[in-house]
């Protein structure tokens, strides 16, 4: 079954859950209107469903290939990329002064969701270009921006991020690529980078690499890293393409998933050095990278939502078609569709509810970025902190549930789920990278407990949980039978999150290792509870507006609250009582 | 890192946790001695580590291939299979009167664990032969047994199980393959079977298919299914190989994992019909299959344990080698091994603790089968029911944690986990089938709540939980600081399981759908709690014996009890309160 973008659910979540509605009304987003938002989401949804999704499988069975330094992407992808750029989709979020549409992050993240539901291997390339545009727009010189931004914004060229080296993954301080100053103000770059997404491909004439490297006199560690723009093909003064730079793709990784996406080993300076241009200041490269880190992490989070949605649609279609056994209450002839078996329904509902919660979390994160962009003064601080606080939740929780939903999708298919032609397995293989790249989910959890909980001395998380508690309260106050115990269960979950957060605050100063040992369950706890708040908010809004989908929203929020939120009491208990047990295990001890 | 069989842990679990020690002392297992058990486990472990495991990757990158009806297994597998049979390993559990060693199920399951840790794709073939031997030994005529059993026991020929058809997976009642009676007392078989593991291969000269089919006058549904022995090559009266039977491998599946294992579409009777011999009575084929179902399901459960163990060893070796960042308390030079980062350690400990719990559960299940075999009268009933009760736990929980441990293994590897050459991803791809085949885990959960809880009017599960509660009590009574709250946490978990089981008993008669909706979390609850009891039992036994590994066992049991058993309170809550929420979700409703 082909992917169909859930346009109505996306619009509803944007407007009634994640804050787009009020932001539009308050005029925070320029001349953007609800009609324009709908038009964009519908159009992007159509392109994702009709053009991107049909190439999903081709991108799996025909991996990108390297021959004589040339990378060939899967059949059909060149045309897809061309048409996608011509449709203006690459330019959606780019700065207006360089040809972009300057649309808010909320729309960018929605579009990314749909491209990634269509084909994560295809969509991950443009995601990197967006990151390069942001880094360059924020830190590049006027000359660099004038030369490179228009073509990166249009998609005529793509961008990459070159951070990782074999010995420097999560710990960028260990990186060794080196840069040498030249008399003309340029630099020469030497070294090897690995895991470079779309480091080489045949979609465009040029590729603009952003590369972290170290100057000869740089301090050790993360304070001695600089950021350089290193084009694959050197650009002449008149903007035309000149000589090939001294860089090459030395190999492609053979990966579990994302086969269509070329993951490159990049070699810089095999000869006299690759020509590079400094972005920002010397030794401040990591800071430049970090300015776009929130957004990049959110863009990975939405990949989790995207694959979860696609896997759910795929499994639901199968479960409605496939017949086995007789479900309780089945009065039809012969075998019943398996969707009617309670255990299968539970799995499908789990996929859908987790996807809805993670979607709301990601959109709310994008909303915070947009508000931070538009606001000033205290408001700007508030929204900047809100985005910072939610980012690790949006990245880690969404990518975890992406894997869970994809794995459930296989299970729902039974034996057919293990057969590659069915397509269910590809979702798991593709989704499995998202909890790893752009900061592993373990690192997100550490970021949450060590850097995000302390924001504004703990005010940021308190206000956030407080807002969501108000949603729980409203769900209770609405007092409708179809709401079941939504209000109570969400309120309980948020209390568990609060109690655990207080424990974190109290424990961090005296026992940092204890906090790190349970950071991952804490992140899950916060995310699950927040997701409950968002789904409750949506159910309340739909009910108050008397929408046709109000019963469905209440039922899904109820399933999430009564079935899935049970986990939060266990997580709180785990966070607050089990650090010692983690510490005392000795894995090296023979037994 | 190559797999090393955890011989000491296996022996300890067998003897001190799962009941082998007392059974040997009581002389329940014939002339088997602890020394012989050790010798067998050590020797099998050596073969698994030195001969099977090195071919793990070859079995992935060189899938079995079909050409002109001939299936070629991965390079090295023919020699491996030959040497494995020559070592007598195929004959381990076979009946003595047909050349087998007649060893108890406990040793069979231990050996299976090690072959599957070495290479699940290789080991799954012989598992099917064991099943065929059992079915034939229990239900075959003397003539069939005399002709086929000696060669199936030695491994000169292999066996298969042909159940599934495209429209008949979980619901075997829907199967359509047909059998026609012949004047000479044989039958002719017609039809297509799918998902036939090792249905065709080049390891042996003959393959003995056990095929479920329907006679022309058979009643509809599961009461009209008969079991037939259908050899690939017909066997002459003198035992020599004759003509090729009218059956062929029509295709191989392209699967997510287990690439080395040929999963065949089998076509019977394209011509005048495949010659088949009735096993057991007409229309009683499913009953014949069910006599070996417990054992077959246990053999799949142990695959979960096996892959979890292998994935853990693989991830631990990497985490001890790989250096990134500085863990809390690290005083060495430069970056610390990632195993010292609390979040990485938590993941490794989770793998190890879940593996240990599932191993104990599987061995205890095998023990019950052995005791049932040896016992008579009430004792036989007791042990038969015990085996029946634990089988769905052993199958579903172990295969679920196999997937979890393999996925954690990828996460521990970071970016390298997504690269196929690392080997971490293969464990996930291979493990993912185990929750599906031999009855999906959802079906195991349904079996548990509808057929196993009611055994002896609920006495079976009460006595089982009661035994484990005694272990919790002992862990508490031992009163040693390194035990932390093992006793309390395990007792709590068992109470949660009991409360939920009581709810199941009470609810099943009046609301079957409610029970089915939460059968899966209930199975997980029972299994997690039981695993806690087993690990506590082991920790107590090691402490009392003053063993060197006593501190390590206590620490691991403590981690399991204090960190992982938190989940049980949530599961109990989920079981007892969320069925309505599952029922009210309407997935077809647009929103």
UniProtKB/TrEMBL annotation, chains A, B:
<comment type="function">
    <text>Involved in the assimilation of dimethylsulphoniopropionate (DMSP), an important compound in the fixation of carbon in marine phytoplankton, by mediating the conversion of 3-(methylthio)propanoyl-CoA (MMPA-CoA) to 3-(methylthio)acryloyl-CoA (MTA-CoA).</text>
</comment>
<keyword id="KW-0274">FAD</keyword>
<dbReference type="Pfam" id="PF02771">
    <property type="entry name" value="Acyl-CoA_dh_N"/>
</dbReference>
<dbReference type="GO" id="GO:0016627">
    <property type="term" value="F:oxidoreductase activity, acting on the CH-CH group of donors"/>
</dbReference>
<dbReference type="GO" id="GO:0050660">
    <property type="term" value="F:flavin adenine dinucleotide binding"/>
</dbReference>
<dbReference type="InterPro" id="IPR025878">
    <property type="entry name" value="Acyl-CoA_dh-like_C_dom"/>
</dbReference>
<feature type="domain" description="Acyl-CoA dehydrogenase/oxidase C-terminal">
    <location>
        <begin position="283"/>
        <end position="448"/>
    </location>
</feature>
<dbReference type="InterPro" id="IPR052166">
    <property type="entry name" value="Diverse_Acyl-CoA_DH"/>
</dbReference>
<comment type="similarity">
    <text>Belongs to the acyl-CoA dehydrogenase family.</text>
</comment>
<feature type="domain" description="Acetyl-CoA dehydrogenase-like C-terminal">
    <location>
        <begin position="478"/>
        <end position="585"/>
    </location>
</feature>
<dbReference type="InterPro" id="IPR036250">
    <property type="entry name" value="AcylCo_DH-like_C"/>
</dbReference>
<protein>
    <recommendedName>
        <fullName>3-methylmercaptopropionyl-CoA dehydrogenase</fullName>
        <ecNumber>1.3.99.41</ecNumber>
    </recommendedName>
</protein>
<dbReference type="InterPro" id="IPR046373">
    <property type="entry name" value="Acyl-CoA_Oxase/DH_mid-dom_sf"/>
</dbReference>
<feature type="domain" description="Acyl-CoA dehydrogenase/oxidase N-terminal">
    <location>
        <begin position="38"/>
        <end position="156"/>
    </location>
</feature>
<dbReference type="Pfam" id="PF12806">
    <property type="entry name" value="Acyl-CoA_dh_C"/>
</dbReference>
<keyword id="KW-0285">Flavoprotein</keyword>
<dbReference type="InterPro" id="IPR006091">
    <property type="entry name" value="Acyl-CoA_Oxase/DH_mid-dom"/>
</dbReference>
<dbReference type="InterPro" id="IPR037069">
    <property type="entry name" value="AcylCoA_DH/ox_N_sf"/>
</dbReference>
<dbReference type="Pfam" id="PF02770">
    <property type="entry name" value="Acyl-CoA_dh_M"/>
</dbReference>
<dbReference type="InterPro" id="IPR009075">
    <property type="entry name" value="AcylCo_DH/oxidase_C"/>
</dbReference>
<dbReference type="InterPro" id="IPR013786">
    <property type="entry name" value="AcylCoA_DH/ox_N"/>
</dbReference>
<dbReference type="InterPro" id="IPR009100">
    <property type="entry name" value="AcylCoA_DH/oxidase_NM_dom_sf"/>
</dbReference>
<dbReference type="Pfam" id="PF00441">
    <property type="entry name" value="Acyl-CoA_dh_1"/>
</dbReference>
<keyword id="KW-0560">Oxidoreductase</keyword>
<feature type="domain" description="Acyl-CoA oxidase/dehydrogenase middle">
    <location>
        <begin position="161"/>
        <end position="267"/>
    </location>
</feature>
